[in-house]
Design brief:
The chain is about 60% helix and about 5% strand. With about 725 residues, it is an alpha+beta fold. Helix 9 (about 265-290) packs antiparallel against helix 18.
Length: about 725
Amino acid sequence: MATYLYKLGRFAFRRRHFVALLWIALLTLAGVGAASAPPAGNSSFSIPGTEAQRAFDLLEQRFPGMSADGATARVVFKAPAGHKMTDAAEKKAVRKTVKELSSGSEVASVADPYAGHTVSRDGAIAYASVKYKVSGMELKDASRDALKEAAGHARTAGLTVEVGGDALNATPETGSSEVIGIGIAAVVLVITFGSLIAAGLPLLTAIVGVGIGVSAITALAKPLDLGSTTSTLATMIGLAVGIDYALFIVSRYRAELAEGREREEAAGRAVGTAGSAVVFAGLTVVIALVGLSVVNIPMLTKMGVAAAGTVAIAVLIALTMIPALLGYAGRTVKPAGEKSKLLGGGRKSAKPDRPNMGTRWASFVVRRPVAVLLLGVIGLGAAAVPAASLELGLPDDGSQPVSTTQRRAYDLLSEGFGPGFNGPLMVVVDAKKSDDPKAAFSKVGDEIKGLKDVVTVTPPTPNKAGDTAIITVVPKSKPSSATTEDLVHAIRGKGDGITSATDATLLVTGATAMNIDVSQKLNDALLPYLALVVGLAFLLLIVVFRSVLVPLKAALGFLLSVLAALGAVVAVFQWGWLSGLMNVEQTGPVMSMMPIFMVGVVFGLAMDYEVFLVTRMREAYVHGENPGQAVVTGFRYGARVVTAAAVIMIAVFSGFIGSSEAMIKMIGFGLAIAVFFDAFIVRMAIVPAVLSLLGRRAWWLPAWLDRALPNVDVEGEGLRSESDEDPKRELVHA
């Protein structure tokens, strides 16, 4: 592979005009496709294989036009002090609001508080339920705006009005976070390379890659039913790996220049060596993202595949566009150890005979491997302790900041009706095979009334055929509580008895039940997903490193860093440690998607650092250095680059911690702390310590396996004789 990529790098350097025009044409084509594509809105949402989804599907058949999975909103009214919602003036204002809400094109129904008896006992609070024809993810912005305007008009009548429900769950804006991440990345790149031109290349190519990927997603959004969250994830991951991969190749190019190679040769060798690491690092990210399909949540699968496509584009751009741009840059990109005249006057940045920080750190670890290993493992182990108390769930309005109308509506409903009103359960009774459907409906209601934690059980509401009914159950506890989850399981536990007695089928659905089912589905998929991703990546790394112990060490180190990161997430968002610093207003269960999302994203990024750092060590070992020297050599050339890449990733993800959305805040913190643990503790401390202790055994591979594996030559051994004997090689001067 190294030889092929070497030739590709030299070709791109020589034919830079052709390569640059090709990528500009692809960017233009994707941009035109995105501009001319019809607006897709948000994608549909379904969770195949769950009871809640089966109930929704059944309701669509038996209650046509009901829009069972449609978005809902609760407009909560509170009377001024000394007044009640049953007073004439308050009634007039509420009914005017109900009439205004009913006029929306996507509105299926609006329940009048006075007709539906949704006024609190003390008369202080009432709410109107709004049902939409489409899900919250498909709801148009115009419908959300109309909902907010209607609430605003009611406030002018002197009422306190707040709006809750999933109808307001629009996709959060993250543009400012991305700008902050790019800004910090630019600063880090300038410090790393000592050159504005060299620093600009990774940023430029990353933006081009993300532009092509996101434009393609936008163009295909309508036919493939891709939502806005898909492009958000693709942007985040594509920007991250795009900068990383270009950074690796530009850094290697400058190192080759420093060794005296002419520029085309340096570009070829950079792509042949660092480019090989980029290819395999990119493959691990693609495996992790595509592997999300094992969860069997269509939206998550589409997000993973789209993001994987953007990563593949980032790899191709790093292999072709970077050497082409290096050709254009010419002598403005300096050899390693030199700065541009603007930043350093063309002088050497350090004394030639002084070891850099990476060399000094690696030498220390090689001398004290046991102490460093124990300190790293104990430290991560301590951070991982809170993960044993991990509780999973999906956020509801109760986890929103108190400044939001959703949270204030949640609190008003709890005040007037009890916390369970924020998460009613919908029990669907299918009595099509029953001889006496009415008796079946009544028996289900009676059985549920006898359960703990139940406040209200409404009378059955049958369909026109009389073979299916809906029963609404209001729990005592809030939707995200373990008690409510136990109630859902208790109701479902009555199913077998109901079927035996009446031949009817009982299903529990609604937003609360759907959240519980999604959490369980994600929890059940975590181990298979982990086995698939780590297993495939383990096999891939055996091919890359031609070793059994190095990939095993990489996988175990990753698991340790992910557990430590999950422990940190639990400590902050579940236990409330440092919650003030992180502006976490409401603690509660960790988002269900967090563990599997963290595994997928962090594994791919962690393997980037593993492949780039350890291939440098492998390269030195293959070229004759002893294992300890190889570790130091790997750090001499790779530590600075990996540090810069990790700092950029941490900055990008940390930008999301400032989001007002609890879910986005948690994702940003979790990914940032995971990258910190993995890059600086696992890859920078535990990895060199383990390799020092293993010595030559680290690179052991059974002879039969050595013969069976393809020789991908990531370390560029095949280039050594060809390029080193190149008579055109000459010293490069500033």
